Amino acid sequence: QEDVFKKLISHAKEYGFIFPSSEIYDGLSAIYDYGQNGAELKSNIKQYWWKAMVQMNENIVGIDSAIFMHPTIWKASGHVDAFNDPLIDNKDSKKRFRADVLLEDYCAKLEEKAQKEIEKAAKRFGDAFDKNEFETTNGRVIEYREKQKTILSRMAKSLENEDLADVKALIEELEIADPDTGSKNWTDVRQFNLMFGTKLGASADSATDLYLRPETAQGIFVNFLNVQKTSRHKLPFGIAQIGKAFRNEIVARQFIFRMREFEQMEMQFFVPPGTELSFYEEWKQKRLNWHLALGLGADNYKFHDHEKLAHYANAAADIEFKFPFGFKELEGIHSRTDFDLKAHEKFSGRKLQYFDSERNENYIPYVVETSVGLDRLFLAIFSNSLKEEVLDDGSERTVLSLPPALAPVKAAILPLMKKDGLAEYGEKIFNDLKFDFNMIYEDKDSIGKRYRRQDAIGTPFCITIDHDTLTDHTVTLRDRDTMQQERVPVADLRRIIDEKTNF
Ligand code: ATP
């Protein structure tokens, strides 16, 4: 599994999808850049989401709000007080540790220790053929590991429930020590806020403290009345947005799954009070169906209904996806009640009421939101599509079988050779089709090598121009998935590519 994940990360880099950010300066942890193919794939995912949300629903509109927002917004939303992770202070070393990081490191050390013991036992088993001794040592390691694992999973639960006393007790049970001094003398468990702070203004004393937004949703809430009044939509209606969010994540170690700078695609649906739970059920189903339509396999998704709800919600569920490291949250669907709008009314002193002409009353709408991480969705699609295939002749190929509508490059134009006018013919096809599709033109290397390169970036079609093309105006069209080649008229290319690659 770890190998599969490593292969995925190196493929993403080698083929221009994702690079570590600031790589020539050794990178920045949990920050990534999207390369030429990654940017295309990401942009296609955005379009696919935007179309399904905004274009296909006459009662949903899209906005693009600023990353910087008035600092009081984060007080109203609860992020200043509640968006925290635990920190532990060590009395002896006077150092501060993030509980989760300590936990992760400790886990890694345990694994290493267990592995060494197993190796030692295996060696002895080989030399002396003492089956009993091997089983005893191995049994001890397994028992030890299981015990630690149980404590760790209990601790994860306490962290989630923000039960800091319990976290502290469990840390003692685990006997984690300060990695530098070996001291186990913890004194305090405190909260660490996940928001990034920054300053607005030129001079230090007059500057205002701001936060980089940790979610895009608040930009929608504070614009709720602006949009409602100017779009003249009646409830129920929705506001959608795609944009960057920033979180100073404590454990950020799974490639683009958990980053410090990432993108969210969110939609807040405003409904009359009392109707929110039926809309919540409806959006849960709609969002799952949207994911299923991508064709990554129904078995790869499951709902996880939340038992413990955030302070603002009266129902919440995740759509989980089977990533290379197991089922994990991909999208959240939350019934957020009137918590946010009510809080903004209170903190801003402005009315955020809606007049319902049917009910003949003013009220604060309730909100059902759907929130999916763009980068997480990218990882889901990318990891699911990357395949190693053994072909009939025994050779192997790496293919990225992306949904064709999302593929960065829709077709590659490949003249068999440069001379005899084949290059010029290829360029003409390229220029004819470039208004409709993102394409690549390549006339170097053997045709086999060029096919493999296109397979590796997920190009659905390769178009080969040979000498016959010059007289009969047909080309060879190779399908990425079946590798079948067929002869088709140049005049049919636009229709064939469009049929396979449109949304
Ligand atoms: P998690 O429990 O994994 O930290 P969350 O419950 O905090 O996620 P939400 O606040 O509900 O996440 O955000 C909505 C979506 O945004 C998530 O479903 C996820 O796809 C995405 N997301 C959240 N945090 C990150 C991150 N650090 N990096 C990438 N995507 C993220």
UniProtKB/TrEMBL annotation:
Sites where the protein binds substrate: R98, E215, F262, E263, Q264, M265, E266, E369, T370, S371, V372, G373
Residue ranges constituting the Aminoacyl-transfer RNA synthetases class-II family profile domain according to the UniProt record: 174-408
Matches recorded under Pfam families: HGTP_anticodon, tRNA-synt_2b
Enzyme class, spelled out: ligase
Gene3D superfamilies noted in UniProt: 3.30.40.230, Anticodon-binding domain (3.40.50.800), Bira Bifunctional Protein, Domain 2 (3.30.930.10)
Main location, first listed in the record: cytoplasm
SUPFAM superfamilies: Class II aaRS ABD-related (SSF52954), Class II aaRS and biotin synthetases (SSF55681)
Binding site for ATP: 247-249, 257-262, 329-330, 373-376
Subcellular location: Cytoplasm
Reaction equations catalysed: tRNA(Gly) + glycine + ATP = glycyl-tRNA(Gly) + AMP + diphosphate
E.C. number(s) listed in UniProt: 6.1.1.14
UniProt-listed InterPro entries: aa-tRNA-synt_IIb, aa-tRNA-synth_II, aa-tRNA-synth_II/BPL/LPL, Anticodon-bd, Anticodon-bd_dom_sf, Gly-tRNA_synthase/POLG2, Gly_tRNA_ligase_bac, GlyRS-like_core
Domain of life: Bacteria
Assigned keywords, A-Z: Aminoacyl-tRNA synthetase, ATP-binding, Cytoplasm, Ligase, Nucleotide-binding, Protein biosynthesis
GO MF: glycine-tRNA ligase activity
Family to which this protein belongs: Belongs to the class-II aminoacyl-tRNA synthetase family.
Subunit structure: Homodimer.
Record function comment: Catalyzes the attachment of glycine to tRNA(Gly).
Protein name as it appears in the record: Glycine--tRNA ligase
